[in-house]
Each structure stands twice: as structure tokens, then as C-alpha cells.
Design goal:
The protein is an alpha/beta fold. It has helices at 16-25, 41-47, 61-75, 96-105, 126-142, 160-169, 181-189, 218-232, and strands at residues 3-9, 29-35, 51-55, 81-84, 110-114, 120-122, 156-159, 192-193, 198-202, 204-206, 238-239. It contains 8 helices and 11 strands.
């Protein structure tokens, strides 16, 4: 069964050759959503063998993820795996075999690459570190059931079966407009009946390897996390309807 690398990308032409080369080394099939880049992101991705989904104008990270997950639901099949991560060079696709092995050996549906499982970060600003640590404490207190330590990372491995079950319950995928989109997916997934089997592996995130400026607006993102966690806290269990989802 193929395994896919889903990459939301805006102005990442400089980072993509290394990233997609590393993906090829572990037999990942790359799918890049070029979110209205002003540089040669799409051209570089195509040259490096990726399938490219294009947004003519910048719509933001959440909409790039929506495009990628919709593609996965439309083109995927049972047994397929989908790895998501940032396209800026801070995350290494070479971790994929370890994540896949963890998923298979522990019969998981989602594997999160966590900075808090003996890994860490290099090159992260003090304010960004405070945001990550605060989000960890906040979401772990409100949603202890999944055993997740790194709620805000986009570095995750999903089974097709999980994505399809999740999309049957939440066809809109998420309402968040920014960096909180994948956090929202985990929070809503915790309400599924039965809840998903989620595990973590330790990893070091290399912010010192980031090629361009961060696209995160820190105060806006912090407020989005606070509002998201509290607003979903009171939602009840969701029974997943029968049937398939195909985008």
C-alpha cells in the first residue's frame, strides 16, 4: 500500500528539494498544496516529482490542509497512510519508518511526532516555546483521554481508515482558519465513539534549519487555541454514521 506525504506549502521553494529528496529515500509519495506562493514552490515541487495541488491565491494553512485531506479522502483507500508535516525544513520525513512501525506494532490510527517525548526543539524563540508549552498544559488538562503531549504540531501520521471515519462524523473537517486546524482535528477526534487509538514518538524539531520567516501570528494563534479548547470542551460523543467519504 502506498504512503503519502501531504505538504501545505507557501514560498518554500528553497526548502523543498531537501525535503522531497528525504521523502523519496523512505518511499513516500509527495503531494504538495501550493498555497498561492510568490516564488517557484509549485515548479520546484513538480521538478522533484511531487503531485501539486494549486491555490491561485493564498488561502492560509487551514485551507491548504483541507485541500490535502480532501485529496486523501478522494484518492486514498484502506491501508494507505498519510504523513503531514511542515514544508519549511524543520521536520524530517526520514522519521516516517519509525512512525509507521510504531503505528503497526501498537495497532494505532494516529501517530504524533512529539517534542515532549524525549526529543525537543532547536532554534525556537522563547515566545514560541512559551506558546507550545502553554498549549500542551491547557489541552492536556481539558482533554486527558488521548494521552497526547504535543497538541500543536502538524507532524502526524494518519491511517486512511481514521481520516474516513473522522470525515463521516465531521464532513467540514475543521472550522479553524489558521494553525489550530490539526489541533481541532485531535480535539474533535477525542469525541468519536469509540475514540481513536493515538500514540506518540519522540522527535527533535529543527527550527534552526528553517529557511524563511515564520508565517505564524503568535497572539492570534494563542487566542485561537484558547477559544478552540474551551468551545469544544462541552461537546458530547459522536457516533460515526455508516458509509464512505470520497471528498
Amino acid at each position: 500500500m502506498p504512503s503519502y506525504l501531504l505538504l501545505p506549502a507557501k514560498d518554500e521553494a528553497e526548502a523543498l528539494p531537501w525535503l522531497l529528496g528525504r521523502a523519496r529515500e523512505v518511499s513516500l509519495v509527495p503531494v504538495v498544496c501550493d498555497d498561492g506562493s510568490g516564488d517557484a514552490t509549485a515548479e520546484v515541487a513538480e521538478r522533484e516529482g511531487a503531485r501539486v495541488l494549486r491555490h491561485p491565491e493564498n488561502r492560509g494553512l487551514a485551507e491548504a490542509l483541507r485541500t490535502l485531506f480532501t485529496w486523501a479522502l478522494t484518492h486514498g483507500k484502506p491501508g494507505d497512510l498519510f504523513l503531514t508535516m511542515d514544508a519549511d525544513g524543520t521536520m524530517d520525513p526520514a522519521l516516517y519508518p519509525h512512525m509507521r512501525r510504531t503505528l503497526v506494532e501498537r495497532n494505532l490510527e494516529v501517530v504524533v511526532a512529539s517534542r515532549y517525548r524525549g526529543g525537543g526543539v532547536e532554534g525556537l524563540s522563547p515566545f514560541r516555546r512559551l506558546l507550545s508549552d502553554g498549549a500542551r498544559a491547557y489541552f492536556s488538562l481539558l482533554y486527558p483521554g488521548l494521552g497526547v503531549t504535543d497538541w500543536t504540531t502538524g507532524w502526524r501520521l494518519y491511517t486512511f481508515e481514521f481520516l474516513e471515519r473522522y470525515a463521516r462524523a465531521y464532513p467540514f473537517l475543521f472550522h479553524a482558519r489558521g494553525f489550530a486546524a490539526q489541533t481541532e482535528m485531535l480535539l474533535r477526534a477525542s469525541r468519536l465513539d469509540p475514540p481513536p487509538r493515538v500514540g506518540e514518538v519522540g522527535v527533535v524539531v529543527r527550527y534552526d534549519r528553517k529557511a524563511g520567516r515564520s508565517k505564524m501570528r503568535l497572539l492570534r494563534t494563542a487566542w485561537e487555541y484558547l477559544r478552540l479548547g474551551w468551545s469544544l470542551r462541552w461537546e458530547g460523543r459522536v457516533l460515526v454514521p455508516e458509509g464512505e467519504v470520497r471528498g
